Amino acid sequence: MHKRSRYGWLLAAALIAALLAGCGGGSKEAAKVKVGEVTRSLFYAPLYVALSQGFFADEGLQVDLQTTAGGDKTMTALLSGGIDIALVGSETSIYVYQQGADDPVINFAQLTQTDGTFLVAREKKESFDWDDLRGSVFLGQRKGGMPQMAGEFTLRKHGIDPHEDLELIQNVDFANIPAAFASGTGEYVQLFEPQASIFEKEGKGYVLASFGVESGRLPYTVFMAKRSYIEKNKEIVQRFTNAVTKAQRWVEDHPAGEIADAVLEFFQGTDRDIAVRVIERYKAQQSYAVGGVIDEEEWNNLLDIMEQAGEITERTPREAIVDNTFAEQALR
């Protein structure tokens, strides 16, 4: 081979190799993100859509999803570094901030915009009035958690003092509330889906009202991370938010049956008809946010509910622990 031709061939080979490496031909490894969800629920359908439809993968992310049952456990996992991103109620970030944290938790993408619980009665009622709860035994959610606060807010809205006008039970662990009601505790219970619809199908309980409709829009479940993590991983947080936003739009544009088929792999043993009913119920009351921006009105409603529940003594400004720039960019 001619010397110049041989060198030209080697140069071309080197250029091709460099181009392949630069274009990802070397199969660049996806960035790993550990995410903790406060519970496994069809209320979080857009999260599972982002996983099943490959939206996280499209953004070059490998998401390790784990269920960290309860807001307190989820926040502990986040603060200790057990997870990178938490999906939990915004009230937990307020508690951390008001304790004077050096590295506060920042809300960066809202997933749901209403409470996700329903009032379930043990006995079927032809007609329902909130006054029916007076003097009853009510199995509520954990004290200080957003479900319980939204529940109390709704009761007060209808003229019922939750601590004076009924027997309120709050000492049952979050994960055990459905089992406690099924075993005979309480005449009424505040439940997430799909448990409420499962009880209806089994004849163990009957949905009477939605706490989400009654308590209005608020940043109910939000993706959040420590400020230090966000500052070091802005590109990852942006890509994560992009995937979530794409999933939210997908859920908005697809019927409940298609959404159920996309997420049922995360709910082994759940009846498809139940899943469709649950998703229809959440879509009808607009529980799924379309875009992760937390607006001022929603934030103030959250603070009103927490203030009325006696869980805060001062109002945390939205700008202190909310960063909407990632969600705004994702929408653009």
TrEMBL record:
Would I find Signal among this entry's keywords?
A: yes
Q: Where in the cell is it found?
A: Periplasm
Q: Which PROSITE patterns match?
A: PROKAR_LIPOPROTEIN
Keyword annotations for this protein?
A: Signal
Instruction: Kindly report the protein's main subcellular placement as a broad class.
Output: periplasm
Q: Name one Pfam family in it.
A: NMT1_2
What sections of the sequence does the record tag as coiled-coil? Answer: none
Q: Which family does it belong to?
A: Belongs to the bacterial solute-binding protein SsuA/TauA family.
- Report what the protein is called: ABC transporter substrate-binding protein YtlA
Which species is this UniProt entry from? Thermobacillus xylanilyticus
